[in-house]
Amino acid sequence: MAAFVVFAAAPARPAEAQMPEAPPGKWWKRPRIVQMLNLTAEQQAKLEDIFSRRRREFVDLKADVERRQIDVEELVAKKDSDARKVSAAVDALEQSRLKLRKAATMMFLEQRDVLSAAQWQQVLDRREEWRAQRLMERRGAAGGEHSPGGGAGPGAGRERSQQRPPDQRPTDQRPPDR
């Protein structure tokens, strides 16, 4: 039954891979990134303000994803579940995940406007490194197990329904800056 949820969520992964990548966590507070991008105190304050304004939205969107994940899991667990109901629940879950990812992307784009052209180029130049870092976080925290969400998205090693937006992960779950 759990395999059904994994395969049902698979179509959403390619779109996520195309989303912009930012450093994990509150990257504008991480000394290595502040130094690398040469962020000013004013830029850091603006970036924090953007995050603070969107934080409640992320909490609500994440809760919606979690509720819809539970709906799917409960339907799949029932022996006599109607395939149409399961399909509709999976569609609702994917739409909810899409809204969460879109909100994270829009926040990132708003934060992009705080950066200079040179700083933005540095972010673009490093996005593959940050994507690889996220992948390593997910694999390391998952302990080699496959979660129903397939490990894609902004969280590290948690089911997709339990993931936080990129800037809400606790610092103790990030690997140290290199």
What gross morphology would you assign?
Answer: elongated
- Helix percentage: 55-70%
Which stretches are low in confidence, meaning pLDDT under 50 for 5 or more residues running? 1-18, 145-178
Task: Please tell me the total number of domains.
Answer: 1
What is the helix tally?
6
Integer-rounded radius of gyration: 17 Å
Overall pLDDT score: 75
What structural class do you assign from the helix and strand content?
Answer: mainly alpha
Terminal CA distance: 40 Å
Classify the beta-strand content into a percent band.
under 5%
DSSP strand count: 0
Q: SSE string, helix = H, strand = E?
A: HHHHHH
Largest sheet: none
What does this protein structure show overall?
The chain has 178 residues and is an all-alpha fold. The chain has one domain. 63% of the residues lie in helices and 0% in strands. The protein is built from 6 helices and no strands. The N and C termini lie far apart (40 Å).
Could you list some keywords that capture this structure?
single chain, 178 residues, mainly alpha, 0% strand, disordered N terminus, disordered C terminus
Short account of what is shown:
The protein is an all-alpha fold. 63% of the residues lie in helices and 0% in strands. Helix 4 packs antiparallel against helix 5.
Strand and helix map with partners:
Layout: H1 2-9, H2 13-17, H3 31-37, H4 41-77, H5 83-112, H6 117-142
